[in-house]
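# step 3/5: fold
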Amino acid sequence: MAGAAKSSKAEETKRLSHGLRGALTAELAGPESHFAAAEQLLLKFHGTYQGYDRDSATELKQQGLEKQWEFMVRAKIPGGRLTPEQYLALDALAERHGGGNLRITTRQGVQFHGIIKRDLKATIAAINRALLTTFAACGDVVRNVTATPAPIADAVHRRLQADAKMLSEELAPKTNAYHEIWLDGEAVAGEVDEPLYGPSYLPRKFKIGLATPEDNSIDVLTNDLGIIALFEGERLVGYNLALGGGLGMTHNKPKTYPRLATPIAFIEPDGLLAGVKAVIQLQRDHGDRADRKHARLKYLVQENGVDWTRATLEGIFCRTLADPKPMPPFRVIDHTGWHEQGDGRWYFGLAIANGRVKDEGSLRLRTALRTVIQRFRPTPILTPGQGIILGDVDAADRAEIEAVLSQHGVSLPHALKPIARWALACPALPSCGLALNEAERIRVPLIAEIEAVLVRHGLGDEEISVRITGCPNGCARPYAGDIGIVGRTPREYALYLGGDFAGTRLNRLVFERIDLAEIAATLEPLFEAFARDRWPGEGFGDFCHRRSNAELIALVDAARPPAARVA
């Protein structure tokens, strides 16, 4: 097995870290503006990434000056659900240490960017005072557990949220290092006992999501472990466990690839935690610890096969597992705008470009949300679409909430075309060290260009998912949408087409290198053909899926001057 190969340097760092402590305490107290290389890996387990401002790096280097080191801090929020007090605490923290803004992630968490080292401990401690944590928001452990966000008052949605919270608590690492380093907790001598993870933790990060086929708004099949809850009315029948999802890859490295999770087994309601722990143990004991690019669970499932995966799980679980149960077609529900909760109250979903909550120019989104939450005390729920839901709203407050948002320049959902409501983008430059190109900073103008093309062809109200990333690692789920736009070089993007809106099929690489200025023009002939030749009820991704790459390229080439055509 891959796990028998020589361990990587990262594995040795974890194994020798004394329960994720390493030299973090000493380096945190030191005068340097950043941490040494070994401690950078350990920092991730504590919920922070070290990086530097890439916009200024070249100029500083030319001047012989040090890089502008900074940190991203991520709060772990199971199912995205906060209390009003917790949201307001995060908002206040954005003012003190986050440059006046916070960012909602595609995994229902919150990130702060641009934190400097001397503010790092204070930032993490403040998040904990709000009864939240950054521990295990990153690192080679189970990260934030996502769940369908709608606060509907029924047994289905209550169970999903309760399961997300339970799994997040039960699967957290047991080391006391986090409390010692960041919260001045009492030091613990001796060896650290991690009964689930072991001394080296997992080979790579591990993502879990909970959904139902009736609402796959979290893209459940993109997780290492997708848990699909099956109900008959409000009675929970059990869970299908789908293993081996994950979207990270590397350009020109065919041994790396995106993959959607495969349903492997059905688990009864009372067997969920044991089943999940068995899957984690499978990855812990058999994952590749020599090559971190080959260490995700998806490679185990793909390369060893479903039969091996199932048999190995049964050996861990100590019993025969039931086959996955049939499921209805997956759907994705639009939670923006007003919806009844089923208990006499309402919830309001708001799309947020890039998940970036800030005041800028006439758009004072951060102030608007703070005002609404202070005044009306709704339940804030972060969505996997980088938006926010305000739940538990009295019917009498609806008009006034809309008025507050509008007064602060916030576009209400009915004013946005679907293409803008559904688009995702990762942070990319200047804060991500892996970014090859822009994503967040080009999302708004690029989506506006694509929207104009759609409107021109009578497709303005068509639901099409566009995901933009600055590199191929897949943080905004680019390979699971209708259209994936993936940074390739400092100016060019790879264009992926043919996924489906419901999140059950990957798209595929069609155009390897397209200049940013040409993306909308490249898509226009495809939209035109889609409007003309689509089958009844067919989505854009489905249309591209039934056409070969050669056919799609030919449609684009026919609209180009000869010199610009694809060879």
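# step 4/5: annotate
The longest helix spans residues 297-317.
# step 5/5: archive (pending)
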